[in-house]
Amino acid sequence: MRDKDLYAQILGIKSPWRVSSVELALSEGEVTVHVEQEAGTTQCCPTCGRESPGYDSRTRRWRHLDTCQYKTILVADVPRVTCKEHGVVTVFVPWAEPGSGFTAMFEALVIDWLKEASISAVSRLMGLSWNAIDGIMQRAVKRGLSRRKALSVTQIGVDETAFKKRHDYVTIVSDQQTGTVLHVGSDRKKGTLKAWYESLTQAQREAIETVSMDMWPAFINATLASVPGAQEKIAFDKFHVAKYLGEAVDKVRRQEHKALMSEGYEDLKGSKYDWLYNPKNMTHEQKRRFKVLRESTLKTARAWAIKEMAMSLWHYVSKTWASKGWQQWLSWAMRSRLEPIKEVAKTIKTHLWGILNAIVLKVSNGPAEGLNSRIKMIKVRSRGFRNKARFANAIYFHLGGLDLYPQGVVR
Ligand SMILES: [Zn+2]
Question: What is the Å distance from ligand 1's center to 64 Cα?
Fold first, then answer.
């Protein structure tokens, strides 16, 4: 078999295209495969498919999968045609998507690697610049989003995730059933989430049964304004409530520890994580020590008991009984004389309606929490993002559940 035929087969070049020559540059470790159209090929407009007369041609290059460790470049003169309707347009080539300097198979391989490894590893391994990789990721996400079927989601989660600095956030809307990201909003404002809701049809908005979220006014107001019956659908999940109470317990501990230390007592020294973590995960010795602490008359022990009581109020089936349980808890918390606990209790009191929704609708934040830790991984693996658009793109790429591959490449 001659080298031209061999390359035609390896590269999957088919009529009306054929390999015209193969050049091997040993010192550069590069193979250049020249491809041309067979003489007399009829040309068609890529937009409407109408047979059109040739205009001129342009020489284009694409990087393809390496062959035997050699960087492999495809070169072809690509005709431009004059379509009656669409003017002068470049015809399609079967091996690459318009505007890409890589063949479809090469892009698919980069996509596969990006799913497994960091951007810097892929850059090193494939000899690609970050900009080239970014282009491949952007095209992949654009394809994926355009192929996505009309949304039909019933259980969604709305959460925020930090971008770079502490106070710079994006909004993540996820499908609680599949754990995929539906939308990345550029900040965490009401208008941003509202705009997403408004991109849905009335029927899609009505189909939403639960919206799990933090007690964040922008998310609450956007949802109340856009989702029919939202008052019964918004659910403040256990995870977020636990987070606020955990922070309150820690505040009480810090204040009390400071006061005790000033009098020379070290009762709370080194106990920070005992109060934050589940006793189930402690060693025998830690458990013994913590038992003594939590049965003490310390304020921190009282704060912790109040938090634990709140955590036990999520098993109710009826809203009436759940409401009674929480009312009792609220009166205990408000009489606790522990300011940080009282603060959270006030927040819980005004948001109790959504906590009761979460309880009776059995909404958990599990899927969103899983997403959050995966988003953190994406940030670590890419060592930060230059801008939010790239960050959003990476989230869609890894967590959007999208079909990312170029047309014709099946995985
Ligand atoms: Zn046309």
Answer: 29
- Best CA proximity match to 402, nearest among 111, 73, 55, 164: 111
Rg of the chain in Å (alpha carbons)? 30
Contacts of 146 (CB under 8 A, 6+ apart): none
pLDDT at 194: 97
Mean of pLDDT over the chain: 90
> Could you give the CA distance from residue 141 to residue 196 in angstroms, rounded to a whole number?
18
pTM: 0.85
In angstroms, the CA 142 to CA 403 distance is 10
CA 85–ligand 1 middle distance (angstroms): 5
Confidence at residue 409, expressed as pLDDT on a 0 to 100 scale: 66
Please give all residues whose CB falls under 5 A of ion ligand 1, grouped by chain where several chains appear.
Answer: 45, 47-48, 83, 85-86
Query: How far away, in angstroms, is 261 Cα from ligand 1 center?
Result: 81
Contacts 24+ apart (CB under 8 A), 28-34: 28/71, 29/69, 29/70, 29/71, 30/70, 30/71, 30/72, 30/73, 31/67, 31/70, 31/71, 31/72, 31/73, 32/72, 32/73, 32/75, 33/7, 33/64, 33/72, 33/73, 33/74, 33/75, 34/75, 34/76
How far is ligand 1, taken at its centre, from the CA of residue 53, in Å?
11
Please say whether the beta carbons of 158 and 173 come within 8 A.
yes
* Per-residue pLDDT tens digits for 284-317: 888 888 888 888 888 999 999 999 999 999 999 9
Kindly report, residue by residue over 116-147, the tens digit of the pLDDT: 988 889 999 999 998 899 999 999 999 999 99
Q: How far apart are CA 151 and CA 157, in angstroms?
A: 14
Euclidean distance between CA atoms 344 and 244, whole angstroms: 7
Distance 135 CA to ligand 1 centre (A): 27
